[in-house]
């Protein structure tokens, strides 16, 4: 049996606030995440043997360092599954980009193997398992417009954001998420998002009303080390984006646009300078399987 053409979508952070550092070393966050229509394609084929990963991107590992592999191995072990699976990933989402590319592959693997291996797990059970592997996996299973708390696994669905076009740019550099968090000084954050006001604006379906309150506190760390990210933000806004933000711990930057025409114009100009530039929009449809 085979599942083909499973689309696992990326996310952006409309807001990202870090509230405190926990005693276990992890951080409490409050953020609004949004699924976008940029996706990887995955295929799952039952095999009589072990788990294997094949990917078209040379930087994606094919062993236990791959989140999809970890998820599959966890399910196989905990539920005593005799079957193996061959997983093929066609990457369109940039790697190490702050877009949950690995986590969304992990979420897709959970859903696909729940069916292929006939495990009968509920959505809540899949999300609980996913949270043990990666903090963004529960969101990637849920999708849409979501307020996240805890380490990112406490999720509250919001009113779906109206279709919003944006230009996404991933500069040719990689950022370590643990490094960013370890260098975040919570005592000297001078600018935070106003999450409550953003939630209110989303409930009213007024994206423009939310713009002044969008912010990502991790920008202060990442941009200090990689000032070109600030340059991309400024370029996007100079070319007509309403607001430009870094997603996650970076380095990807997205510019929210008033409409598709403006987004297309910005995309064409940015694409000449940055190879990994994408024209995308928000996505609030069903997570596919």
Please outline what is shown here.
The protein is an alpha+beta fold and 289 residues long. The protein has helices at residues 67-78, 101-116, 123-131, 137-142, 177-182, 195-203, 207-210, 219-225, 228-238, 260-271, and strands at 2-21, 27-47, 51-55, 84-90, 145-149, 154-157, 165-169, 243-246, 253-256, 277-281.
| Major sheet size, sense and barrel closure | 6 strands, mixed
- Mean pLDDT equals 94
Helix content: 25-40%
Strand content: 25-35%
Q: Which of globular, elongated, flat, extended, rod-shaped describes the shape?
A: globular
Q: Give the strand tally.
A: 10
Overall domain count: 2
Oligomer: single chain
Number of helical segments?
10
Low-confidence stretches: none
- Radius of gyration, Cα only, in angstroms? 19 Å
Q: How far do the termini sit from each other?
A: 14 Å
Helix and strand content put the structural class at alpha+beta
CATH architecture grouping of the largest domain: 2-Layer Sandwich
CATH class (first level) name of the largest domain: Alpha Beta
Q: Element order, helices and strands? A: EEEHEHHHEEEHHHHHEEHE
Under CATH, the topology of the largest domain is which? Ribosomal Protein S5, domain 2
